[in-house]
Structure formats: C-alpha cells, structure tokens
Amino acid sequence: MDTKKIKKLLEQVEKGSLSANEAMNSLKHLPYEAISRAKIDHHRAMRTDIPEVIFTGKKKTSDIVNIAHSMMERSGKFLITRASEEIYKALGIRKAVFHPDSGIISYGEPKKKHGHVLILAAGTSDIPVAEEADLTAAFLGSKTQRVYDVGVAGLHRLLAHTDALKTTRVVIVVAGMEGALPSLVGGLINKPLIAVPTSVGYGSSFGGLTALFAMLNSCVPGIAVVNIDNGFGAGCLAHRINMMGKAK
Description:
Structural class: alpha/beta
Distance between the termini: 15 Å
Number of strands: 11
Number of helices: 11
CATH topology of the largest domain: Rossmann fold
Oligomer: single chain
Strand content: 15-25%
C-alpha cells in the first residue's frame, strides 16, 4: 500500500463512505505482514517511494510465490528480480510479465510514467543488466529509453544519440570489459550519471572488477557507481533522481 492509497482510504472515512472498521482491516498489516518465513514490508513505499522487491537469490520457489501473492493482494503490484521461467510458471498469475533476458517478473506497473531516464549499454552482452535497470525504473514510474550497443569501440554509434543525451534527466551507463563508456558519456553531458559495471569480459576483467575500478577511478567528476551487475540498484537510484522536484 502506498501513500496515495492511504490518503484515499482516509478521505473515504472522512466522507463516511468507508467505516473505521473497514479502514482498520485494510491497515491491519502495518508495519509488516508475517507469512511463512517472511515478513513483508507492505508500507516501505510510503517511507522510501520504493516498495519491497523480491530478490529470488536462494529462496524457495514456494516462498517467492507466497510473498508475490501477498504483495499483489495488498498493493496490487510486485517486482521479482533474477527470476527463472520456472518461478514465473509457479506464480500462476496471468497478467504478470516475465522478461527472460533480465530475469525480471513484474505485475501492476503504472501506466503513467514521468520524466526521462536514458539507459545506455556498451555492448549487447551488457543488455541483461541494462534491461534490469530499465525495467526497475519503469516499474517505479519513470519514463525510460534504451540505447544499446554504443560502446567505445565505435564512438560514432553513441554520437548518433546526442539528442537523447541532451534531453534526459538522468543517464544509466552499463559497461563491461574495460568499463570506459561512463567516462566518455560523462564528458559529454551535464546530467546525473549512474555507472554499472558488468561481469562481461575475458580473464583479466576479473568478473567485472576491472570495469568497477575503472568507473570508480574515472577522471570525470560526479559519476555514481553501483555494484557489479546491479542493474536493479541503478534503476532505483535513477528513478529517485528523475522524480526529484515532482509534486507528491
């Protein structure tokens, strides 16, 4: 349940169209709901503007399904990251959408989006992480745009998208190998830039550490760097920046 729903609930009580007991029944799971082995923080979005998200990790499929169904019932939406088709099928929710490249399962994404978040992927191998960032920001309510395969090996490919770079509110740059693309983009724009290193590369890329260190040591000031392959974290941060100044 988010701030808008709570406000609407209180307005209904004020007008007399909803009884106090009915309102209490809707709010009874504040601050969390304990089910099975999980404690679901249904009101996290009220505090942080970002709801609790289900990271599959090593969770049992049955736990993931129970948590998702509870979120759907209480707030009408949920986001699952690093999921498989097996988990998607186990959910049994027809309107849920599975994105196999990123492993994202989403349900209840808002139709109206705001602002502009631009997601750049250096190579096609970086697309799964870039898509995770994109889908996360979009699920939270940001209008997103994807531009893929614009790595430093072909600078002209990036320069073909200068209009998008100029008009966006925030840029997410996803890159593996040597991780040079964020520095290049950062030298072209005056917008907030979030760099995401990926584990793409040969032996000396050390699973993304080379890209991570390159981004952390960029000579371009003001670049934010998230963890290796953390498209989700980048999407959340980009959404927050994108929504700054928007009336609640």
